[in-house]
Amino acid sequence: MSIRLLAVELYRAQQKVDRIQKEIEKADYKEQESLKSELKVARKELQMLRKMLDGQKESGSFRKKFSKFSSFS
Question: Are 50 and 7 in contact (CB under 8 A)?
Answer without folding.
Answer: no
